[in-house]
Amino acid sequence: MRKAKYVPLLLLISVAAATLFPAILKTEPPIKLVFAETLSNLDEPTPYFYRDVAHLQSETYFSFSIIAYNNDVETLYFKVTGEAPQYTFATVDLGPIAQSKNSGYRLLSNFARRPRPNPSEFVGGEMEETIKLILMAYRDSNCTVLKWTYERNAKVKWINSSDPSFTVVLNDNFNDGQVNGWKSKQKGSSQEGTMQISSEKVLSVPYSAYKSTWPGYDGTYSYEFYKQVSVPSANKAYAVINVLVEGRSRDGRHTNPDYIYVHYGSTQLACVGPDVTESTWLRFVVPLTPGTTDILKITVTTHYTSSSGFGLACDNYLDDVLIVVK
Ligand SMILES: [Ca+2]
Q1: How far is the CA of 322 from the centre of ligand 1 (A)?
Q2: 167-325 fold
Q3: What distance in angstroms lies between residue 283's CA and the mean position of ligand 1's atoms?
Q4: Identical fold at 31-159 and 167-325?
Q5: How many CB atoms lie within 10 A of CB 303?
Q6: Could you tell me the residue ranges of all domains in the chain?
Q7: Tens of pLDDT along 283-322?
Q8: Distance 171 CA to ligand 1 centre (A)
Q9: Which residues contact 234 (CB under 8 A, 6 or more apart)?
Q10: CA of 117 to the centre of ligand 1 (A)
Q11: Is the Cβ–Cβ distance between 142 and 76 less than 8 Å?
C-alpha cells in the first residue's frame, strides 16, 4: 500500500523536471551514425579502431559495421562516405530509413582503403590517426535535396606487432600441428569440443585451427571458438586474431556466415556484419587489459541451411593469434 502512494509522486517529479529543465533531457540529433564494432562504447565521441601493420599488403582495406538513425519526422534517404588524409572512401547508398527508425546493422565492406603505413613513422610501434565518417540524409530518393549532414570522428590506432617495442606473449600459429588449447562449442551449450588442425586454408603454412559447424537444423545459430589467455602486467596489450569463414553450398542453397564478434571475458571488443565477407582472412586487432586472465573468444553467427536433408556446414578457420604487450 505504501508503495502505491509513492509511484504517482515519483511520476509527478519526473514530469516536473522535464517541464522545468528541458535542457537536462538528452537531445538526439536529427540523424546519427554509430559504429557497431564498438557497441560497448557507443557514447564515446571518438571510438577507436585497431589495426596491425605487420605483414599487410601494400594497400589495406577497411570495413565498418554501422547503424544509421533517422530521428526526423519524415522518411529520409541516406548515404555515407568519409574523409581522412591518405584514405580513399567509397560513397555507399544506405537507402530509405523511415522516421524514428534506424537502418539496423549495415556492413560497409571495403569502405575505405589506405596505402600501408610505413612502420618507420611509428613511435614505439604505434601510430594514431583520425578519420571522419559523413552521414548524409536527403528528402528525395534521387538524393538531390540534402536535409541533414552528420559527421563522426573515429581514431584508427595502428600497431606494429613486429616492432621490438612489443613483447610477444602468445603466438598460436598451429604450425606444429597442435591446437594449443583452442576449444569450441555452440553458444549456450555446455558441450565443449576442441578445434582441429587443417591444411586447407592457412595464413601461415602448413596449418591452421579449424572447426566445421552444423547445428543439425536449418536456422540461425552461433558457435564460439575460445581459449583462456593470460596477459602479463604491462602498459598496453593487444590481441591480433585472423579468422576465415566459409559456408558450404549445394543445389543453389548456401549456409551464410553473418556476424563475427570478438570478446575478452564478457566485454565485446569487435563486431563485423551482417553478411561478413567469406573465404578471405579477416584480421581483428583488439586491446586487452594487462595483468588479467580471461577467455578470448571469437563468435560466429551463421544462417544454416540444408538441401535434400543434407546439412550445409560452415567452415571456420583461425590462424596466427598473437598477444603482444609493451
Ligand atoms: Ca598457421
Answers
A1: 12
A2: Jelly Rolls (2.60.120)
A3: 14
A4: no
A5: 17
A6: 31-159, 167-325
A7: 999 999 999 999 999 999 999 999 998 999 999 999 999 9
A8: 10
A9: 167, 290, 291, 325, 326
A10: 25
A11: no
